Sequence to fold (302 residues):
Amino acid sequence: MIYKHRKEPNELCILKSLNTRMSLDEKDKQYYFNLKKGYEGEVLFDSLLEKLSCECIILNDLLLKQNNTLFQIDSLLINRDSLYLYEVKNYEGDYYYDSDRLYKKNQKEISNPLIQLNRTESLLRQLLKHLGYPTPIFASVVFINPEFTLYQSPLNKPFIFPTQINRHLKELNTVSSKLKDDHKRLADKLLSLHVTDSPYRKLPSYEYKELRKGVVCGECLSFTISVEGMQFSCLICGHREEIEAAVMRNVRTFKLLFPDNKLTANVIHEWCNEVVTKRRITRILQKNFKVKGVHQWTYYEE
Fold:
């Protein structure tokens, strides 16, 4: 059972919007692509865990603190006797392992995920002991991408390779595991300790005036759309979307990028590059938000 679902991180949502509405420098663009690829790998692993038939509790994307030290868990599975901690990597291509170091085939060294896994496992074990749940932990790095190959991989490292994932999940399903109230209490306690605002965000500086205005297609992120009755139609990919849904999606983007700015019909009319009438935008905002102020001082809040 998925007890905590994964949400697309705000950092990734912001970078996706910025990449659409401005020119990111190469360093920021590469960081965005890496973040996006990592998230896609985690979502793929989530979809596999969802198919488990054994009785278990799954917590995805936890950010916890122990001894004033933050640590992140990609996926945590709770069954009757133990916890399974997964660090998910969406690496693609040829890599090799040498002297506890991980290299791309071009001899470029990258961070060894075992270092991160060992740190996370240690902090989680300390936290569980502090909470009164000294449960055994089985920690693994999951290489989710089927196009990944690791040469010279030691047999004694907790790696799960793409060809081993299904077998690992089948083994989990063979465990007869009846959960008790203590398992749910542990899951609830970890959820209550989840840190919602990550301090790790790395965002480029940006200003409203330098961002491209317009309604972005929900599928291909193109600005090339046309209004057809009550719908937007993308001239690039053909995706169709109700005008209200598209406007609200772009409103959420504006609020994410500029959380301190007041939400007004004038602002959203300009943000959408005036492709929707101000009267229609006003109706949409009135329907979905609380109205504050009057006349020219009207604005909207959740």
Summary: The two ends are 31 Å apart (CA to CA). The first strand starts at residue 2 and ends at 4.
